[in-house]
Specification:
- There is one protein chain.
- The chain has 537 residues and is an alpha/beta fold.
- It folds into 3 domains: 7-393, ANL, N-terminal domain (Rossmann fold, 3-Layer(aba) Sandwich); 398-470, Luciferase, Domain 3 (Luciferase, domain 3, Roll), CATH 2.30.38.10; 474-536, GMP Synthetase, Chain A, domain 3, CATH 3.30.300.
- The longest helix is centred in the first third of the chain and has 17 residues, at 62-78.
- The protein is 30% helix and 26% strand.
Length: 537
């Protein structure tokens, strides 16, 4: 592990050795075998279906995780999945999510899909990727995942097989026995065969792959990005970029003694790569509290007790979850918790202070995006943390602030503290960002730098500051208004839990600012009081 504190430390690591020498594994499966060989009996994954601090938990050691990945990869090949063909994973969190991620990337190309999407949107992704196999849930009480996937597969005729994971195996005995009565029916109007994941896996050997894995630096994962309307954009990820994410986690923070509490979904790159791949590379344990994570019943209520139960040393979070947690007391021993890592969106400064005062735990804010196979920058764990910035670029990541033309030509490189488009180059950036070549036009700037679409600046110490996205600016009468300024003013009020500012269409000015506010539970602050407070800031 390197003690990264300054830009000079990052540059020294880069000068010491080329990035290719930093890890030996060529594929995710080789990395799994390496870690399972070093720590066969250490816990790799823990999962509990319900959120209580004493509810049943199921775990896999690194050796057991490797065995399940081998079984599923062999099963996928037996179903006719060939090299370069796609297995979609429409799963919430659980043991099946990391197993499918690794096995799918080993046997072909894995494509995690958000199960909260509509059937039509899921179907659009299945068609876009040409998915041949889908791994999802069996019908289960209070879950509509199986039903939505059945509808989606009916709209995606290329799917040949649906493998269903049964959450009943995570239930304690009395409830598990009642499942035949409690299980909802799922109507099927597609022609794909539907098989039980667990029983089919057990038909296949768990010791070694029964096929020769392609160890070239190939595309092994697809992640969808963009909104929930229109045609999906599918980002394609190579093994090298995914392994780079894992190396960064190990190099900067994690050892085999760590425990990562992960209430974020594995269908998002933040949990799949910086979190899970860091555990895969270092040997740390990952814990999934309920299939829905932060959305799960009772998770926020029991969160600190779950930290105590697993003696977690790290937690991955997002600003909205931190806001919700700060409306509840820290009612457990969280002394094992060393760091909280936040991504996905900028965190208001006031929220930083509330969290750290309540827990005594420091938050490190970072930055990444799906198109870059995630990681770009993080506040250094051993150096100055500049609240409001996303920290220093990771080792072997180069960030430039540019003005580019539509084709990616560099018009101007910005100076220190000058705002422009954040452009990044690292092992996770590929020339073909998306599967659709049309969507790649102009996205890579000269020199192989990904144009992120985010606006930002680099300060004199090399820290990256995100100032927004061009499309997020509120333009009132020709004047640009940064929504973050409004949000920070509102968030400084003690009775405001969270705030979000947007531009509202206006006949006279084009747009006028509007702010939505979530109050702390039990608060009675009035609109007039909040507006007066914000104006005074």
């Amino acid at each position: 592990m390197f003690r990264m504190a300054t830009l000079a430390d990052k540059l020294a690591v880069e000068a010491e050795a080329p990035v290719e020498s930093r890890w030996t594994a060529r594929t995710l499966y080789e990395q799994l075998c390496e870690t399972a060989g070093r720590f066969p009996d250490r816990q790799a994954v823990a999962f509990q279906l319900r959120s209580g601090p004493r509810d049943k938990a199921v775990t896999l050691s690194w050796a057991e995780l490797r065995a399940e990945v081998v079984q599923l990869a062999n099963l996928l090949r037996s179903l006719g999945l060939g090299p370069g063909e796609v297995v979609a994973s429409v799963l919430p969190n659980g043991l099946e999510a990391p197993v499918t991620l690794l096995a799918g990337a080993t046997a072909g190309i894995v494509n995690p899909i958000n199960p909260l999407l509509s059937p039509e949107h899921i179907a659009g992704i299945l068609r876009e990727t040409g998915a041949k196999v889908v791994v999802t849930l069996a019908p289960f009480p209070q879950s509509d995942v199986a039903q939505k996937v059945a509808e989606a597969v009916a709209l995606a005729p290329g799917v040949e097989t649906v493998l269903q994971a049964d959450l009943a195996r995570y239930l304690p005995a009395p409830l598990a026995w009642a499942m035949p009565v409690l299980r909802p029916k799922a109507e099927v109007h597609h022609r794909a065969r539907v098989l039980d994941l667990r029983s089919e896996m057990q038909r296949h050997p768990a010791d070694e792959l029964r096929f020769t894995e392609d160890t070239s630096d190939r595309v092994c994962a697809y992640f969808h990005t963009g909104g929930t309307t229109g045609l999906p954009k599918i980002a394609q990820h190579h093994a090298r970029g995914i392994l780079y994410n894992g190396w960064c986690g190990k190099a900067y923070m994690f050892t085999e003694a760590d425990v990562m509490m992960c209430p974020l979904p594995m269908f998002h790159v933040l949990a799949a790569y910086p979190v899970f791949m860091s555990c895969l590379t270092s040997g740390a344990q990952i814990v999934f509290p309920t299939p829905q994570g932060f959305r799960g019943a009772g998770v926020l209520k029991n969160f600190w007790k779950l930290i105590e139960r697993y003696r977690a040393s790290f937690v991955i979070t997002v600003p909205t979850a931190v806001s919700a947690l700060m409306q509840r007391p820290v009612d457990a021993d969280v002394s094992t918790l060393r760091l909280a890592i936040s991504g996905s969106a900028a965190m208001p400064v006031e929220l930083f202070h509330r969290f750290e005062e309540a827990t005594g735990v420091m938050i490190l804010e970072g930055y990444g995006l799906t198109e870059a196979t995630c990681l770009i920058a993080v506040n250094p764990p051993y150096g100055e943390r500049k609240i409001g910035s996303v920290g220093l670029p990771f080792a072997y990541t180069d960030v430039r602030i540019l003005h580019c033309d539509a084709g990616g030509g560099i018009v101007k490189e910005c100076g220190t503290d000058e705002v422009g488009e954040i452009c990044a180059r690292n092992p996770g950036v590929n020339a073909a960002v998306y599967t659709d070549a049309e969507k790649n036009r102009g996205i890579i700037a000269e020199g192989g730098y990904l144009r992120t679409g985010d606006l930002g600046r680099l300060d004199t110490d090399g820290y990256l500051w995100i100032t927004g996205r061009a499309k997020d600016l509120i333009i009132r009468g020709g004047h640009n208004i940064d929504p973050a300024v409004i949000e920070e003013a509102m968030m400084s009020h003690p009775e405001v839990a969270f705030a979000g500012a947007i531009g509202q269409p206006d006949m006279h000015s084009g747009e006028v600012p509007a702010v939505y506010v979530e109050l702390v539970e039990g608060s009675r602050a009035s609109e007039e009081e909040l507006l007066a407070h914000a104006r005074a800031r």
